[in-house]
Amino acid sequence: MKKLQSQPFESKLAWLTVILCAVGLILLSSASNVISLQRFGSQYFYLTRQAIFVGVGLVAMLLVSKINYHFYKRIALILLGLIVLLLATVLIPGIGFTSGEARSWFNFGVFFLQPAEFAKLALIIYLATYIEAKGEMMKSFFHGLLPSLAITGAVAGLILVQPDFGGTAAIILIAFSIYFAGSVRITHLLALVTAGLIASYALIKAAPYRLARFSAFLDPTLDPLGIGYHINQALLAVGSGGLWGYGFGQSRQKFNFLPEPIGDSVFAITAEELGFLRVAVLLTLFCLFAVLGYGVARKAPDTFGMLLAVGITSWVVIQVVFNIGAMVNILPLTGITLPFISYGGSSIIALLIGVGILLNISRQRI
């Protein structure tokens, strides 16, 4: 048996995560001050709450990093069952909290819990457990791949009916990344891609608001004051930032022009204030996270650890691509938040728990 050794870049991944969280708080302090003052009479309401969420998340990351990642094999089904129960319960009128057209949260007064964020981690753990257990049987569509597809479809379907098309797309792509890293045949993966594209087209056509969003993506000038307003204001913010930006704290768009300045639009505010050259530093940090995360997967001592690391790292990468791609109009708007940067307790805590698992895997290598 090969000896397990300390992973050399464990500390790099930990410090990089802390840096991303710190950068997120700094950027949020500017993006949130106007809306925070208007809604709560204090410029620091959202920043203070996010700082608490980050603190809780970092403590959770530290604690989880001490737990041997093989423990999650034993509780994979329990976690999956719990998250399916929560996803179903949040849809019940009077129990789930509704914002706009979406019913995606539990309102605990001081904290809104969004089960879909934790569903990503639960599904990653389940799929890693399932694929390792099946081994070469994953090459069989009916005896290997199909049962896991049914579970993935059930989780994705519960998120879709909230409705959260962006979250659904993200969780499907996370699952796809794990299948790709596992023993699934390329022909089966290509068939899944084809089926996914057909399903996406059908879902877009079935819901008028999705069709309108997609039309605005194809041509933002179609309805600049209606469905195209968000993307037009985002493009205006990103474009007006130029190379160096207006300066930190000097955004114009955060003054009630750009929707969701603390959520999925935080990157546009950042680009407006800091400009392309300084935003490139943030993009570099995300790229470095991807390199380190996939490095953990490459050196993981077993298939389970490798698949966990691939899933968690892809989770971050996919959301970064979705969020920034939407803000520069190379992808449709989906409402996906920017990891470690956007406001949201469930998102940051779930992500940091995932990073804690990554850190534990990185402590061991062949």
With strands numbered from the N-terminus, the spatial order across the biggest sheet is: 1-2-3
Helix content: 55-70%
SS-derived structural category:
mainly alpha
Relative strand content: under 5%
Cα Rg: 20 Å
Number of beta-strand segments: 3
Mean pLDDT: 91
Query: Helix-strand pattern, N to C?
Result: HHHHEEEHHHHHHHHH
Number of domains: 1
Ends distance:
9 Å
Largest sheet: 3 strands, antiparallel
Number of DSSP helical runs: 13
Extract low-pLDDT stretches: 1-6
Characterize the overall form: globular
Summarize the structure.
By secondary structure, this protein is mainly α. It has helices spanning 10-31, 33-40, 45-64, 71-89, 115-134, 141-160, 165-181, 186-206, 208-218, 229-241, 266-298, 303-327, 345-362; strands spanning 96-99, 102-107, 112-113.
What does this structure look like?
With 366 residues, the protein is mainly α. The protein has one domain (10-362). The protein is 67% helix and 3% strand. It is built from 13 helices and three strands; from the N terminus they run H-H-H-H-E-E-E-H-H-H-H-H-H-H-H-H. The chain has a three-stranded antiparallel β-sheet, with no helix packed on it.
Defining key terms:
366 residues, mainly alpha, three-stranded antiparallel beta sheet, 13 helices
Topology:
Layout: H1 10-31, H2 33-40, H3 45-64, H4 71-89, E1 96-99, E2 102-107, E3 112-113, H5 115-134, H6 141-160, H7 165-181, H8 186-206, H9 208-218, H10 229-241, H11 266-298, H12 303-327, H13 345-362
Antiparallel strand pairs: 1-2, 2-3
Helix pairs in contact: 1-3, 1-11, 1-13, 3-13, 4-5, 4-6, 5-6, 5-7, 5-12, 5-13, 6-7, 7-12, 8-9, 10-11, 11-12, 12-13
